[in-house]
Amino acid sequence: MKRLILALVVVGFFAIPTFVMAGGTVEEMTFFSQALGEDMPLLVYLPEGYGTSGLSYPVVYFIHGMTSDHTSNPQVVEAADLLISNGWTEPFILVLPNAYCFPFVDAGYPLPIHSSFTNSDLNGDYEDYFTEDILEWVEATLRTIPDRDHRFVTGHSQGGYSAMRVALRHPNLFSKVGAHSSPLSYEPMVGFGPMIVAEYPDGTPYDYSPHAGFISKILFAYGASFTPNLSNSPWFVDLAFDPYGLPDPAVLPRFIAHSNTHWAAEFAASGADLGIYFDCGTLDEMGANYLTQYFAGTLDVLGVPYTQRWFVGDHHSHIGIQMPIHFTYFLPLSATVEINPDTLKLRSRGRWVTAYLELPGGLAVSDIDVSTIAITEVDGMELATAIHREGPTAVSDVNGNGVLDLMVKFDRSDLIEQLGGHGGDTVAIVIDGQLLNGWYLEAVDTVKVVN
Questions:
Q1: Domain residues of the chain, as ranges?
Q2: C-alpha separations of 447 from 58, 345, 444 in Å
Q3: 3-state SS of 101-162?
C-alpha cells in the first residue's frame, strides 16, 4: 500500500478541462498497479463538498466500452453530478478506470484492446488489477465507505460485460451491478460468423487480422482476453472461428467458458446475494440485444433475480440517458414519506394504510410511475413478496409544506400480516418505486405497532 500512495504523491492531481461540473470536481489520477507492474490512470469524480465535509462516501465504478477509454464518457460523469448537485440522491464518488491493454504492439498493431478485466497470459492480470489494486488504492486514498453495501459497479458495452463478470465472480466485493448495452453472454456469438468474414472480401481461407475492421478487432480482443496462446505467432491468440468462418470446436469451449452465463451459474450455486440490473436498446446494431436476452433467459433458468429494461435506441446514443437509472438503482432518489396512521393496531379492521410521498426539490410527483410503488422492507427485513400499491391515488399538499405529495394506499391487512411479531415496537417501513423515466426512488417512515 505504501508503494501505491507514493506513486500518487509523485504524480499528483490535475483537472480534465473538458469536464465542466455543476458541483463536483473531476480529476485524473495515476497509481502503480502491483498486478500489472506499471502506472495506470483512472478518472475520479468527487461530489460537491468532498474537500470540506469530512464524510465518507459510497463508490460507483464505471467501466468504459471497446471504443472508448476512461476519459471518453463525460455524459456518465455529468449524470452523477446532476443527481448529486441537485440533492436528488446520496452523494457518491465515481471512479472510471482504464480497461485497455496493448497485446499486439510487437505484431505491428499498436491500437489498444479492451482487457475485459480478465487475467490473461497475453494481456496481464487485469482482473486482479481491478478487484485488488484499484479497490485497494481507492479506499486507501479517498474517503470511502469500504464495504460491499456501499460499493457498486457498472459499465457500457464490453465494460458492462466486465462489470457483470467481476460482480458475479466477486459478490463479496459489490452489492449491486449494472450493465448498459453489453454482450452479457457469448453463446449466441457462434452465429456472428457472417459479420466477421464480411471484413475479408478475398474469401476463404480467411487470414484473420485485427487490421481488417472493427469486428475483427473485437474478435482479437476476445482472443487476447479469453483464449491466449503464446506459441501461436504472430498474434499469440487462438480465435473462436476457423479459416472458413465457422466456429472452431477446439477453441469455442474455451471462449464460451468466459460467458457471463458461466459466472452466473457459479454465482447461483454459491448462494451469494447481488442486485443485478441491465438494459439494452431494441435497435442495438452490435447485437448486444440478442446477447442480453440470452443472459436474461439463463438467469431465469438459474432462478437468479434481476431487473431488465429495454429502450428504443442503438448501442451508443443512450449512455447519458440510462446512467441515471443505474446510479439510482444503486442509490435511489432521496424521497420522503409520511405513513398514516402512524400507529397501527394489529387487530384493526380498517381497509387502507395511506402513504404520502414527496420527491426532492425540482422533481415532480406527477412523474412517479404509480404502478411501481410498493412496500419492500419492514424493520430491516426485505419482504419475500412486496406489498404493492392499491386503491386510488391523488396529488396534493397534505402537510402544507409547499411541496406536492403523491397519495398512495396499501391494503392494511397485507401490511399487518408482516407486522404480527412486532407488537409494541416502532418499525421502519421502506417504500420503493420508479419515475416514468426509470429513475429509482426510496422513502422510509416509522410506525408504532400496537397489539
A1: 2-185+259-330, 189-256, 333-450
A2: 28, 10, 10
A3: ECCCHHHCCCCCEECCCCEECCCEEHHHHHHHHHHHHHHHHCCECCCHHHEEEEEECHHHHH
Neighbours of 303 (CB within 10 A): 7
For residue 316, report the phi and psi dihedrals to the nearest 5 degrees.
-115, -25
Q: What is the pLDDT of residue 20?
A: 53
- For the beta carbon of residue 341, count every other beta carbon within 10 angstroms: 14
Question: Any idea which residue has 426485505 for its cell?
Answer: 382
Does 3.40.30.120 match the CATH number of domain 2-185+259-330?
A: no
All 3 cell numbers of residue 449?
Answer: 405497532
Quickly tell me which residue has 442495438 as its cell.
Answer: 284
With b for 16 or more beta-carbon neighbours within 10 A and e for fewer, the 247-258 pattern comes to bbeebbebbbeb
From the first residue on, what is the mean pLDDT of each consecutive set of 10 residues in the chain (451 residues)?
A: 26 37 88 96 96 96 92 94 96 97 88 93 97 98 98 97 98 98 94 92 95 92 97 96 95 96 98 97 91 97 97 94 98 96 83 95 95 95 94 93 96 88 86 97 94 77
The dihedral over CA atoms of 79, 82, 87, 93, expressed in degrees to the nearest 10, equals 50
Residues near 258 by Cβ (< 8 Å), separated by ≥ 6? Answer: 116, 118, 165, 186, 225, 226
Report pTM.
Answer: 0.92
At the top level of CATH, the class of 333-450 is mainly beta
Bridge partners (DSSP) listed for residue 259: none
Cell numbers that stand for 430 in this block:
421502506
